[in-house]
């Protein structure tokens, strides 16, 4: 038995049945990691010692017959913008190259409580700004399917690590598609939960009204397993929602008969790779065959989503990046005479191009002259787009779309063209603007490269989304036990 | 020529909640540097603010006390600027939807009551403190970061520095009354910025507004305003104008000094603080808070007039602060002579407090002790003058009046036999005065009483001594 080929669910079962030990699992994955990392660079920090210690504690628990948590023994990757106590958290930036947090994020606390094992911190675009994991200060992460290509971003490290079986499951963060697009590019499953379902305490803010922590895995059940462990109200995050907890594995039926699915006509008319479009159209047929009702719908204001997203997100970015000033922690320039120079030099030297570009953009739209006509107007458009979605969800359970308009592109191909890069988020950003949930699952391959299907649900309808994804995955045998290939 | 001064104020008041505005760190003044801090109030990456409900409660109480309208829906915003004492590069404050809008504070002028309008009251977080050492280092203490503040902005309704002072006094006493702040200017829990300019009422010409900052006391604020008033007028007289600028009061030089030129107006790039959801304030809660408010100064004054039958002036002075009013009421509980208590408090007690800049709560003696002192006087055990001396000792030592009187042997001599012996001796030594008195010079009697007091070191009962002297001379 090759441990790394197991699903997270299977690892857990075999551990409980004492077929394997937690140490076996961790060692197998560390071996794999050491083999793969030279090519992939999916990790910024590998916490080998901590992981082995955690494994031994679990093995001890098993020996004593103590009750195990739901993530017992499962090796997990954590995106490096999620705070880990006493483990370096860099956000992929020179600014936080040596930042070791003295506190814990709520999600990591929950994972540890559930006996999950954190294997390390995964690579990402600097401060999660990017769609290719090329802007990381710690080097580019490569797509395990084709190392000439990007893994997507910004959670590219997490997606690549899951795909390459360096970990079984991983945490990512999604502000405009940063979990779903890399999941699509790496042929794995990635879920962006509803805003407020998972506590953001300890997620380093990119655009705080859009950010959400979510899960990546090689199949839908594994994604649901990790989701189960991290959801719930957190008094440390006022935007987290206090509601009854749902068991996403327990409730994961595979029946989609009669479910009403809408496909926005605006989406299919968009400029996209024809091969991607073909895979999506095939998937729609599959849902019809499974008994779902699929109809064309309209989201009349969706064409404004991308512009609205970039105005709101960069405004929030310029605000959230302000705390990195070289005074209390993080990078401080060596040479400066005045306080202003300390700020300017520290920030100029430690932030990369993309971060600076977005800070400038956001600063511009928040400025006194533009606040009303750009920032506040974007907030109004956001409300109108939300209303479009609300209306659709009165009649439909699910909306389908591609995750990305293109196949995984080559490293370096788009990095010089920010606008082209921004456009690759076209299908994913409306979900963040409206705060609803969506999953990306592999729906087919084009010349060996994966295509992701985005299944979108209303607020707190994760169960519906997961159910449809699970049914599809089983039907086409692309995911599940077949590790997403 | 006639000039009108126009003054508006911006006051920052720290609220006395147990914990800070967005975390559970203690809200206490002082403490070793950087010990009242956590990831939230240090603004560490990933930490999120959670609004302390008590802050809303305290701020709403202030709004109610100042007759403001309380918003039913409000929100928090981010105000951006860079400064080392500001941990996140922005201050969480309120921009376009303040918690309280409108309202007024009434001040008493000779010509009657004047309403000073309030523009708004909003909640926000305080910043840390920079400490600049002699060696030229800058150190930072973030204990104050995240302490809850209300910012109170007035309309430009004050026309003299005195009006501004009365406004500040009233504001302070009200905030202390409702127990939302201790308003200690020296500890920075009340800070005041002043906008002042002058209008030539004949030509309509106005000076540019000067902003006065870093004022450490009400008296400093008044001096700064008086200085600016003169400066603006003299410039107007010369046909010149002031610069739009920020100045501070220099206590040593007794003048205002330029801090920075305004040039361009600061751009705070306001954005919505989406880490905190919009705040809904139900009318029932506002009503509940309204009912929980203690008696406010005006109502207390009216009650004092009625209940204690003291003049309006007395009631006004005694209700200046809650502490003083409480002290008065407590004293009256022990001695049933409200006017006498009022006289003593407004006289010797307040004089000493004002001279030494004490707070009533710093007094070493209790209302019960003052009552006892008055009782000793009323019972004739000590004279009024001895009473004043005893009170002085009470200020210094805090000892009970009985103890002071006993230790210093101040008990009044009211024993007739004893007094007769003393008078006999005094008369035998002052024969000329007896003759003078008999010849109708009343002053001579006063002199003789004075001699008796001198011999007894002031302990003789003056009324009795007076009577015995008359009797003895007549018998001669
Ligand atoms: Zn704190």
Automatic annotation (TrEMBL), chain A:
Q: Which GO BP terms apply?
A: translation
What SUPFAM superfamilies does the record point to? Answer: Amidase signature (AS) enzymes (SSF75304)
This protein's record includes keyword Aminoacyl-tRNA synthetase: no
> What family name appears in the similarity comment?
Belongs to the amidase family. GatA subfamily.
- Task of the protein: Allows the formation of correctly charged Gln-tRNA(Gln) through the transamidation of misacylated Glu-tRNA(Gln) in organisms which lack glutaminyl-tRNA synthetase. The reaction takes place in the presence of glutamine and ATP through an activated gamma-phospho-Glu-tRNA(Gln).
Q: How does it assemble?
A: Heterotrimer of A, B and C subunits.
HAMAP family in alphabetical order: GatA
Put simply, this protein is called Glutamyl-tRNA(Gln) amidotransferase subunit A
Give the gene symbol. gatA
UniProtKB/TrEMBL annotation, chain B:
UniProt keyword Transport present = no
**Could you give a single Gene Ontology term from the biological process aspect?**
translation
What Gene Ontology molecular function terms does this protein carry? asparaginyl-tRNA synthase (glutamine-hydrolyzing) activity; ATP binding; glutaminyl-tRNA synthase (glutamine-hydrolyzing) activity; transferase activity
The record, for SMART domains, names: GatB_Yqey
InterPro entries cross-referenced by the UniProt entry: Asn/Gln-tRNA_amidoTrfase_suB/E (IPR017959), Asn/Gln-tRNA_Trfase_suB/E_cat (IPR006075), Asn/Gln_amidotransferase (IPR018027), Asn/Gln_tRNA_amidoTrase-B-like (IPR003789), GatB (IPR004413), GatB_C_1 (IPR042114), GatB_Yqey_C_2 (IPR023168), Gln-tRNA_amidoTrfase_suB_CS (IPR017958)
Question: What EC number(s) are associated with this protein in UniProt?
Answer: 6.3.5.-
Q: Could you tell me what reaction this enzyme catalyses? A: L-glutamyl-tRNA(Gln) + L-glutamine + ATP + H2O = L-glutaminyl-tRNA(Gln) + L-glutamate + ADP + phosphate + H(+); L-aspartyl-tRNA(Asn) + L-glutamine + ATP + H2O = L-asparaginyl-tRNA(Asn) + L-glutamate + ADP + phosphate + 2 H(+)
Q: Which family does it belong to?
A: Belongs to the GatB/GatE family. GatB subfamily.
Q: What is this protein called?
A: Aspartyl/glutamyl-tRNA(Asn/Gln) amidotransferase subunit B
Query: Which species?
Result: Keratinibaculum paraultunense
């Amino acid at each position: 038995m090759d441990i790394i080929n197991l699903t997270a669910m299977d690892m857990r079962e075999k551990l409980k049945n004492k077929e394997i030990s937690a140490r076996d699992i961790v060692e197998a994955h560390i071996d794999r990691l050491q083999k793969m990392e030279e090519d992939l660079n999916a990790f910024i920090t590998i916490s080998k010692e901590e992981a082995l210690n955690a494994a031994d504690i679990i093995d001890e628990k098993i020996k004593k017959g103590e009750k195990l948590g739901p993530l017992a023994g499962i090796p997990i990757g954590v995106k490096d913008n999620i705070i880990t106590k006493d483990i370096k958290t860099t956000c992929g930036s020179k600014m936080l190259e040596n930042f070791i947090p003295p506190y814990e994020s709520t999600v990591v606390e929950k994972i540890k409580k559930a006996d999950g094992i954190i294997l390390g911190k995964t690579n990402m675009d600097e401060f999660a700004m990017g769609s290719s994991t090329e802007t990381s200060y710690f080097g580019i992460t490569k797509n395990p399917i084709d190392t000439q290509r990007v893994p997507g971003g910004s959670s590219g490290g997490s997606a690549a690590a899951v795909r390459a079986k360096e970990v079984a499951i991983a945490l990512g963060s999604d502000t405009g598609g940063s979990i779903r697009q890399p999941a699509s590019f790496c042929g794995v499953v990635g879920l962006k939960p509803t805003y407020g379902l998972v506590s953001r305490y300890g997620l380093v803010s990119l655009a705080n009204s859009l950010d959400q922590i979510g899960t990546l895995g090689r199949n839908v059940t594994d994604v649901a397993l990790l989701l189960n462990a991290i959801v719930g109200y957190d008094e440390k995050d006022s935007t987290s929602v206090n509601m009854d907890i749902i068991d996403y594995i327990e409730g994961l039926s595979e029946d989609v008969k009669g479910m009403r699915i809408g496909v926005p006509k605006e989406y299919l008319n968009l400029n996209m790779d024809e091969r991607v479009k073909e895979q999506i159209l095939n998937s729609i047929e599959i849902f019809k065959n499974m008994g779902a009702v699929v109809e064309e719908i309209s989201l009349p204001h969706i064409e404004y989503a991308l512009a609205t997203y970039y105005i709101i997100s960069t405004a929030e970015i310029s605000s959230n990046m302000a705390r990195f000033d070289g005074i209390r922690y993080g990078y401080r320039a060596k040479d400066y005479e005045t306080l202003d120079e300390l700020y300017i030099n520290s920030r100029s030297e430690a932030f990369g191009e993309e971060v600076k570009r977005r800070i400038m953009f956001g600063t511009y739209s928040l400025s006194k002259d533009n606040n009303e006509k750009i920032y506040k107007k974007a907030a109004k458009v956001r409300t109108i787009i939300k209303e479009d979605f609300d209306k659709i969800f009165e009649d439909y359970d699910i909306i389908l779309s591609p995750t990305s308009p293109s196949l995984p592109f080559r490293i370096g191909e788009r990095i010089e063209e920010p606008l082209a890069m921004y456009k690759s988020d076209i299908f994913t950003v409306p979900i963040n603007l409206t705060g609803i949930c969506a999953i990306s699952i592999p729906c087919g391959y084009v010349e060996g490269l994966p295509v992701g299907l985005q299944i979108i649900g209303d607020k707190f309808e994760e169960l519906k989304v997961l159910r449809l994804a699970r049914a599809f995955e089983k039907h086409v045998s692309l995911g599940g036990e077949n590790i997403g290939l | 020529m006639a000039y009108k001064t126009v003054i508006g104020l911006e006051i920052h008041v720290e609220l006395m909640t147990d914990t800070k505005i967005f975390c559970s760190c203690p809200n206490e003044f002082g403490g070793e540097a950087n010990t009242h801090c956590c990831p939230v109030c240090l603004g560490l990456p990933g930490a999120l603010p959670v609004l302390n409900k008590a802050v809303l409660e305290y701020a709403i109480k202030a709004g109610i006390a100042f007759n403001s309208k309380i918003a039913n829906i409000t929100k928090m915003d981010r105000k951006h600027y860079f400064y080392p004492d500001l941990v996140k590069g922005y201050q969480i404050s309120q921009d376009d939807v303040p918690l309280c809008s409108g309202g007024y504070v009434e001040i008493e002028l000779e010509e009657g009551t004047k309403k000073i309008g309030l523009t708004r009251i909003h909640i926000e977080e305080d910043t840390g403190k920079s400490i600049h050492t002699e060696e030229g280092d800058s150190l930072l203490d973030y204990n104050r970061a995240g302490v809850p503040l209300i910012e109170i902005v007035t309309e430009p309704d004050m026309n003299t520095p005195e009006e501004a002072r009365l406004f500040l006094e009233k504001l302070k006493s009200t905030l202390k009354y409702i127990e939302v702040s201790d308003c200690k200017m020296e500890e920075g829990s009340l800070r005041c910025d002043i906008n002042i300019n002058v209008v030539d009422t004949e030509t309509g010409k106005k000076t540019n507004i000067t902003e006065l900052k870093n004022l450490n006391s009400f008296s400093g604020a008044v001096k700064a305003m008086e200085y600016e008033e003169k400066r603006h007028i003299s410039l107007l007289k010369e046909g010149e104008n002031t610069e739009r600028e920020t100045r501070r009061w220099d206590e040593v030089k007794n003048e205002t000094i330029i801090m920075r030129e305004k040039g361009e107006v600061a751009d705070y790039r306001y954005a919505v603080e989406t880490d905190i959801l919009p705040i809904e304030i139900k009318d029932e809660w506002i009503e509940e808070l309204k009912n929980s408010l203690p008696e406010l100064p005006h109502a207390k004054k009216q009650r004092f007039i009625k209940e204690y039958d003291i003049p309006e002036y007395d009631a006004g002075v005694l209700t200046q602060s809650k502490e003083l009013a409480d002290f008065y009421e407590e004293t009256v509980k022990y001695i049933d002579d409200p006017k006498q208590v009022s006289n003593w408090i407004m006289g010797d007690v307040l004089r000493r407090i004002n001279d030494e800049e004490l707070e009533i709560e710093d007094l070493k003696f209790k209302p019960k002790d003052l009552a006892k002192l008055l009782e000793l006087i009323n019972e004739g055990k000590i004279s009024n003058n001895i009473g004043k001396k005893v009170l002085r000792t009470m200020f210094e030592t805090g000892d009970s009046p009985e103890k002071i009187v006993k230790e210093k042997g101040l008990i009044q001599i009211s024993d007739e036999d004893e007094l007769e012996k003393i008078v006999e001796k005094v008369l035998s030594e002052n024969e000329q005065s007896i003759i003078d008195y008999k010849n109708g010079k009343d002053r001579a009697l006063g002199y003789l009483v004075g001699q008796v007091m001198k011999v007894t070191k002031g302990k003789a009962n003056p009324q009795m001594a007076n009577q015995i002297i008359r009797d003895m001379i007549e018998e001669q």
